């Protein structure tokens, strides 16, 4: 038997050449990682990017899993003695898990059904007359021949009823019929929701779903997940509906129903029974599962995009920092870290409790600042964050110190503080002190610090607790690994959690690298890492290009040039009569390199261009330059906000329906998708990403529910639009949901779900 080859199918699905897919498949089979394949094997696969390579990996896995299931099904049906040539052909031609399971359904072991009971009563021959639409005979007379009191068939009608049960199950298990009903749900069906009780709470976040209906084909992922959550919480009832008449007519065609047959009325009853009793419930479950999977994938993609933006946020850099974790009752924990993030010292100050304590706070923090000479002070943006920020700025003004104060997101800091990683790193420190250290380090290098925290707790997701958790975990892990390898890791300062995300290393090797470094001092070259126990040539090949050593014995170790290309670069250096240490970073000299002279069997133009780019700017951080953003000092709480007020905001989360902004009032505001730009926006991610600094204007403040509606539009709309124009505008922006109110936030049911 010819082995199954998933390459052609993956190639067709992804619109990527079979040669490229086959090349990637071979690279994976050899044990290579996605970052390594994307960066250092471009000629092999034809310059595919990371996303395309991961898509290939996913498709190959899908088709291999499908093939494994196909073989299991074929074997099972064959063992039953029911595998016909036609059925075998259909199963082998199936490229969908759903279609495969539909074909297997009639042969799948199942619980005792009405059809099974009818067969045990000997009614299958009568069912065949109905299914085959016998041209002659009388149903009642035919049924009388099956009356058997011992088998509990007392009348002809009971015999016909049992025969119809058999036919109904056969119809409901036909792959073509199931595909028909499933397609009808997706193309013409609607999802409806209603209140689970007669009582309706006007303040409920689900109130827009108490009488809701939308086509299944049009409902966005966040809305479907909101309805599912409302159902889980017992607030909503959910239902999928389709028009029965067209489906039943089509089922009659599939079953070759013949109105001239005396058995036609019995088949018609069987079809109606199959549709109502067996198909709609079963297929509705399948459709719901598929909708949930689609919504999950969409939500996970949104989370992944936000996480990537956050991880790749501009670093402040290797500079001494004071981090402050604000607190009212327990005080503000202040810590000092050096330029490498090493913890130095801590104090606690108390604000907002009494004049005397605030006076002492000024003295203590002043001394702390003079002692550690920070270049910036990072203040957590949680409770009392703005007050602490204002206090710090006032103190620095009095001290005439040119030190910046930066608000830093605390999301996930408490999770990190209580984690095994934090306990291992700072076993003798209090949780709140660990949190302050994390805040300081987040300013220095967001990526290096955030990799220590479970991505789900960072607060940039949408329905992260409602989606399939393994899917979420796998995707977020992909993002973290991608970001870490995109930026590169300084081998002599990186923590074990950061090193563990480098291609080819993992958790166990990362700890061994840190232990070796602690015992033997800083690594002097990339090759020295091969001395770490357990790190072999394969791991080194995958990881080396993403590790950086600045100031080491080999200048190229500070760059993304892979060690496998060092000899080539040394040859280039010799050809240019320029010492290697003077070639690296010398744009003028590097520009003289003629690529054509070095193209060979094992190296092409793509790799050579990457090498030249690295030689021009070795080890350059691909992230943007750090830029401070200051909130309005006269706006501290919701009460300070006024409609029409203009503010600076930081994007904290991008969802399918808009973006949330931190405007410095302890409560994020929403810029609805309809308010993100002066043009139509289909996807908020096309306009903004987490971490962006954007000017916004206040549209509405709902003090009761603590909701803020913002706009990022530069053109201010008329305050009293003509009703028809307003409705037309809103329908153009969100045609799938005319009941939604994009102009305000008070009635948006998705913001806090």
Descriptive key words:
single chain; 753 residues; alpha/beta; Arc Repressor Mutant, subunit A; Nucleotidyltransferase, domain 5; OB fold (Dihydrolipoamide Acetyltransferase, E2P); five-stranded mixed β-sheet; 30 helices; disordered C terminus
Task: Please explain how this structure is put together.
The structure is a single chain. 46% of the residues lie in helices and 11% in strands. It is α/β, with parallel strands linked by helices. Among the domains are: 7-81, Arc Repressor Mutant, subunit A; 324-444, YqgF/RNase H-like domain (Nucleotidyltransferase, domain 5, 2-Layer Sandwich); 638-733, Nucleic acid-binding proteins (OB fold (Dihydrolipoamide Acetyltransferase, E2P)), CATH 2.40.50.140. The strands form 4 sheets. Strands 6-5-4-7-8 form a 5-stranded mixed β-sheet, with helices on both faces. The chain has a 5-stranded mixed barrel with strand order 11-12-13-15-14. Helix 1 crosses helix 2 (18-29) and helix 14 crosses helix 15. The longest helix has 48 residues, at 264-311. The two termini are 53 Å apart.
């Amino acid at each position: 038997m010819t082995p199954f080859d998933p390459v052609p199918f993956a190639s067709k699905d992804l619109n990527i050449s079979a040669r490229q897919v086959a090349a990637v498949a071979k690279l994976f089979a050899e044990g290579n990682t996605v970052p390594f394949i994307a960066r250092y094997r471009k000629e092999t696969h034809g310059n595919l990017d990371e996303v395309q390579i991961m898509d290939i990996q996913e498709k190959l896995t899908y088709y291999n899993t499908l093939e494994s299931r196909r073989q299991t099904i074929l074997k099972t049906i064959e063992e039953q003695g029911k595998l016909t040539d036609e059925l075998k052909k259909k199963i082998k031609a199936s490229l969908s898990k759903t279609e495969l399971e539909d074909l297997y359904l009639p042969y799948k072991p199942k619980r005792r059904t009405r059809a099974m009971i009818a067969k045990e009563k000997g009614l299958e021959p009568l069912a065949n007359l109905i299914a085959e639409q016998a041209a002659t005979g009388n149903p009642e007379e035919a049924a009388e021949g099956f009356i058997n009191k011992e088998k509990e068939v007392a009348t002809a009608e009971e015999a016909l009823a049992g025969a119809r049960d058999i036919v109904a199950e056969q119809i409901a298990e036909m792959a073509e019929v199931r595909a028909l009903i499933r397609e009808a749900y997706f193309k013409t069906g609607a999802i409806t929701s209603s209140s689970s009780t007669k009582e309706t709470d006007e303040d409920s976040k689900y109130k827009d779903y108490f009488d809701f209906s939308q086509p299944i084909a049009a409902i966005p992922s966040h809305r479907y997940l909101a309805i599912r959550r409302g159902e889980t919480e017992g607030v909503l009832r959910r239902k999928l509906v389709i028009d029965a008449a067209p489906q039943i007519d089509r089922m009659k065609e599939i079953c070759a129903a013949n109105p001239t047959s005396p058995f036609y009325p019995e088949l018609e009853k069987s079809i109606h029974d199959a549709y109502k009793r067996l198909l709609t419930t079963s297929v509705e479950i399948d459709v719901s599962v598929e909708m949930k999977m689609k919504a999950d994938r969409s939500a996970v993609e949104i989370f992944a995009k936000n996480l990537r933006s956050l991880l790749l946020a501009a670093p402040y850099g290797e500079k001494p920092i004071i981090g402050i974790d604000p607190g009212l009752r327990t005080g503000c924990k202040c810590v000092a870290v050096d330029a490498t993030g090493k913890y130095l010292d801590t104090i606690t100050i108390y604000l907002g409790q009494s004049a005397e304590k605030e006076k002492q706070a000024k003295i203590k923090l002043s001394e702390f600042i003079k002692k550690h000479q920070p270049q910036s002070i990072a203040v957590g943006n949680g409770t009392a964050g703005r007050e602490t920020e204002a206090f710090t700025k006032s103190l620095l003004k009095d001290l005439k110190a040119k030190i910046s104060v930066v608000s830093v997101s605390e999301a996930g800091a408490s999770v990190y503080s209580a984690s095994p990683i934090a306990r291992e790193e700072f076993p003798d420190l209090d949780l709140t002190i660990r949190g302050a250290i994390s805040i300081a380090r987040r300013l220095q290098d967001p990526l290096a610090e955030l990799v220590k925290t479970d991505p789900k707790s960072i607060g940039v997701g949408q329905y992260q607790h409602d989606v399939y958790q393994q899917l979420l975990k796998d995707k977020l892990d992909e993002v973290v690994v991608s970001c870490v390898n995109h930026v590169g890791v300084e081998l002599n300062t990186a923590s074990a959690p950061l090193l563990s995300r480098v291609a080819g290393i993992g958790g166990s090797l990362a700890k061994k690298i840190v232990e070796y470094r602690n015992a033997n001092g800083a690594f002097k070259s990339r090759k020295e890492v091969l001395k770490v126990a357990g790190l072999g040539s394969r791991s080194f090949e995958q990881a080396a290009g993403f590790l950086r050593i600045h100031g080491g014995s080999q200048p190229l170790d500070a760059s993304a040039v892979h060690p496998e290309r060092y000899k080539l670069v040394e040859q280039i250096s010799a050809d240019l009569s320029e010492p290697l240490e003077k070639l690296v970073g010398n744009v003028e000299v590097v520009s003289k390199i003629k690529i054509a002279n070095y193209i060979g069997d094992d190296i092409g133009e793509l790799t050579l261009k990457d090498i030249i780019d690295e030689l021009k700017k070795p080890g350059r951080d691909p992230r943007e330059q750090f830029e401070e953003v200051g909130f309005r000092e006269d706006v501290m709480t919701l009460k300070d906000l006024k409609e029409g007020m203009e503010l600076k905001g930081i994007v904290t989360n991008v969802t399918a329906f808009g973006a949330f902004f931190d405007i410095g009032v302890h409560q994020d505001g929403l810029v609805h998708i309809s308010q993100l730009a002066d043009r139509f926006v289909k996807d908020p991610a096309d306009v903004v990403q987490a971490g962006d600094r954007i000017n916004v204007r206040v549209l509405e403040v709902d003090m009761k529910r603590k909701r803020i509606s913002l706009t990022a539009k530069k053109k201010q709309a008329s305050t009293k639009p003509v009703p028809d124009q307003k409705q037309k505008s809103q329908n153009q922006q969100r045609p799938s949901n005319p009941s939604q109110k994009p102009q305000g936030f008070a009635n948006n049911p998705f913001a806090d779900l």
